[in-house]
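Discussion board: Methods & Data

I've been asked by a reviewer to show the raw model output for two of the constructs in my manuscript, not just the figures. I'm not sure how much to include, so I'm pasting the format here to get opinions. Each protein appears as its amino acid sequence followed by a line of discrete structure tokens. Is this the kind of thing reviewers expect to see in a supplement, or should I convert it first? Here is construct A:
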Amino acid sequence: MTKLSLLAVCVLFSEVLAHMQLLDPPPFGASNNPFRTDPVDPYLQYPYNCCGRSDPYLCRGYLNLLGTPQGRPVATWEAGSVQTFSLTGIGNHYGGSCQVGFSVDGGKTFQVATSFEGNCPHRHATDSQDFSFTVPTDIPTGDVVFAWTWINREQEFNMNCAAITITGGAGEAAQPTNQDSGNLGFNVPDGCSCTCNKPQPAPRPLQRYRRGTGISAHGKRTDSPAVPFNERPEMLVADTGNGCLSPLTTAELKYPNPGPDVVEGDGEYQVELPLPPDKCGY
């Protein structure tokens, strides 16, 4: 089979079995990123290490665009403001859990802004894929990296990133620099092996779960105590071969270190911690 034929097969499979990706703000490598001049990344929707690839963890290798024309910020957000990120795709795996956060040191570390524990992406086709969150009030001013991560119930991890300018923050963010964060070559794989498993029914009666003294409701946010940005936990990485495994099929992920701003899911699935604790940072 020719490379062109293989690419056509991959495109067909991506339309039928695609996953989800960040739509807004436009991530590095996306078709809607106004500063992209390289070819569109056809794998942004796929989980890490899928379709015969070995994906660099941090931002799929795109940190090397920082400080270059293709790495320019795609949005300006004020510290402390409420913003919205949007997702797109046709394979939402009937939910999962997501985190969004920021790196103010050129991608060396990523602090959590908000954790969405369950029903992220929204599981029903009639639901919007828009999610609101608050930019930390004391995040440094300047150009930063915004990250979205998703861990679904098939133990798959995805991460997309975008450059953002922060105004009205505390201090200044580190100057972004061009980094070598992995191979960005998009060789056509020998076959498209990524598939979306069919949604599994909840194995237990639907119930709300408790967090502290409160009982969650659909989309309810927990209280957000004041936590300095530099003391927020780092975003969780699981299911990438690092030894940390999320729940498989029967539950959605509960973050062991979710940060101060948590949005609880709709309760259709219970939430469980990843295992083992020593590999998952708790």
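Construct B, same format:
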Amino acid sequence: MALLYLKNLIHPSREYRRLIDPGSYDLEETFDLASAGPSTPSRSSISDEHDEKAYHDGSPTPSPSPSQSQSLFDARLISAATIGFSDGLTVPFALTAGLSAIGTSRVVIYGGLSELIAGTISMGMGGFLGAKGEAAAYTATLARTHTTVHTSPHQTTALLTQTLSPSLPPGLLSPLITHLLSHPPSCISFLMAFHHHMPPSSFSPRRAYIHGAVIASGYVVGGIVPLLPYMVVHDVHRAFRFSIVFTGVVLFLFGWVKTRVVGERSVLGCSRGAVEMLLLGGFAAGAAVGCVRLLKT
């Protein structure tokens, strides 16, 4: 997990920044047209007018095109899979690389499988408990926001002003705040999404189980990769060399695919993400091997 954080800290993508702070980007994009002026209607308003006209006319509403449909990838699930796979790829490799310096292939396999089982359970439980904690925080924040909106108009106005003022001109700020204050459910939803950065779709009750299962599955898939050479090659030193090459290739491909999935389209950007993942994974493995060899001497 620390490896993934360090990689995104070095080379953050727009989608990663959107994931860790979704409200700032959503709010900025929501009111871009407002600051540009009323001359060009937005695509969503055109769609709403078309749907309303079709409803009154009784004609069926056409289904959205693939480009207008919701993305097939959930950003949080991509993050969970990335965390599980990156940890599963680097931690068992570092362990097996260290054990290869002092044991046989059988010792490496048994130690690697033991770590893989324990790590899978630990990562799955961590993802599950983390998602449950987020859901509990969402419920508490929703209750607090509900109380604030219904009992303290002045505090609610201050929260709305704080949220909207960086993105709206003064001429639009006051009417929008007045409108939201007159519609408490809309005001609560707005504050949860844009002030607290907690959209309800990200905190469904079943997300904890899905989140834990995705992280655990990613850890299993990643953890099998560095163990495969030891299961095929009986000479531990040859297996170690094959494991280095195999894991390095998978680290590079994983970094490329992960960078591509989160939104990078240029070959240079994907290559940079792949090389960073390879270097960070290699550093973790090299540190483990070096420590074991140092203790052995």
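Answer (T.O., handling editor elsewhere):
This is acceptable in a supplement if you add a one-line summary per construct. For B, something like: Residues 1-26, 28-72 have pLDDT under 50 and may be disordered.
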